[in-house]
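tokens incoming
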């Protein structure tokens, strides 16, 4: 018996599609370097196989969120740059140095911390500066930027290798905040007069046009096949397939109900397939009576609540020979992508991918892993 035979859920990740998506995004921003964002374990798909694949495709700059993510990535990407989006925490300077990690400095505190570490080392240390152009989450705000612009000694010992900002509404191309943030980024970087490359664009921002590309683009979601331009056809190649194993098929009739809370009552004779994937695997409980799967080319609705390890689908419309214990129902795939599943669950594709569980058998297709 193979691991595939035993698997209750199979997650397949097409690394060649990730590489193709990276090349497509790079070609969409000619003149800019294309980085790869692989935080949160490569959006749940595996940071190491993803980063190795991107490095083989020519990617030389990676972004992760935490120092530990950077340390785990370092041995797999050769001499590529690894930026830590969360920045330095007190006492972590040695970890950055030892593993060749570059912090993104998000506040005057972090600038001070990094300058202090450089001073203690009696050398200049690389860092990226993050300017807040309207997100109000992380980044140096306008007064902090003025302070730095007025007195460059704050940056003594800091070798600014990149200046970034992050967009709040790039998935809404007509949102007024987009042009506001672009203008603020130009104004703030102009005032700073630091001759470093600039970066504003994550996935959706790339599609706002050349004005937004600057010197380096930072796509994450689009690499993994999520649609960077919601409401329009997805230009990215699909990356993820997820299927769940049918454990049991049962005939039902009115007035029976299914699952916890008896939230679905059958109106007529039908069949229910019970699949061995539940909310513990990242199939959100909010999909109860709202989500869909696909089997034999037929879209089948979730009936009743999603439980921890099990989900029930109404398969009455599917030819009987296609639905049997051991067969798989597709949860994410070309006919039902992560963005669609997210919409059914009331969330976004980012959360669907990063919530993918640890029990799936992971199948990597192609790539450099
Ligand atoms: C996560 C992140 C990205 C990538 O965003 P996507 O929308 O997934 O492309 C880029 N820049 C920063 C600062 C981020 O936090």
């Amino acid at each position: 018996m193979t691991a595939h035979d035993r698997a209750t859920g199979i997650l397949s990740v097409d690394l060649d599609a990730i590489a193709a998506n990276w090349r497509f995004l790079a070609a969409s921003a000619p003149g800019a370097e294309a980085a790869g964002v692989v935080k949160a374990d490569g959006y749940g798909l595996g940071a190491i196989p993803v980063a190795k694949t991107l490095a083989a495709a020519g990617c030389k700059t990676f972004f992760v969120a935490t120092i530990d993510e950077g340390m785990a990535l370092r041995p797999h990407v050769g001499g590529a740059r690894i930026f830590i989006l969360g920045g330095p925490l007190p006492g972590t300077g040695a970890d950055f140095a030892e593993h060749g990690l570059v912090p993104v400095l998000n506040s005057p505190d972090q600038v001070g911390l990094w300058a202090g570490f450089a001073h203690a080392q009696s050398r200049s240390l690389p860092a990226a500066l993050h300017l807040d152009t309207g997100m109000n989450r992380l980044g140096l705000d306008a007064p902090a930027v003025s302070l730095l612009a007025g007195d460059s000694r704050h940056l003594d010992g800091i070798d600014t290798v990149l200046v970034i900002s992050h967009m709040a509404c790039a998935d809404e191309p007509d949102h007024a905040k987009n042009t506001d943030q672009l203008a603020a980024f130009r104004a703030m970087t102009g005032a700073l007069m630091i001759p470093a490359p600039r970066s504003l664009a994550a996935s959706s921002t790339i599609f706002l046009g050349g004005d937004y590309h600057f010197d380096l683009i930072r796509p994450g979601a689009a690499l993994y096949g999520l649609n960077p331009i919601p409401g329009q056809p997805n230009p990215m190649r699909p990356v993820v397939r997820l299927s769940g194993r049918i454990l049991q098929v049962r005939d039902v009739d009115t007035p029976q109900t299914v699952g916890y809370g008896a939230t679905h009552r059958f109106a007529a004779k039908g069949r229910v397939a019970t699949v061995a994937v539940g909310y513990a695997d990242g199939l959100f409980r909010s999909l109860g009576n709202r989500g869909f799967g696909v089997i034999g080319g037929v879209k089948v609705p979730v009936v009743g609540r999603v439980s921890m390890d099990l989900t029930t689908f109404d398969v009455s419309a599917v030819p009987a020979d296609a639905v049997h214990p051991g067969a798989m129902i597709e949860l994410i795939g070309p006919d039902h992508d992560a963005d669609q599943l997210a919409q059914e669950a009331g969330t976004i594709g980012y959360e669907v991918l990063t919530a993918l569980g640890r029990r799936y058998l992971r199948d990597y297709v192609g790539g450099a892993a």
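note: The chain has two domains: 31-224, 240-365.
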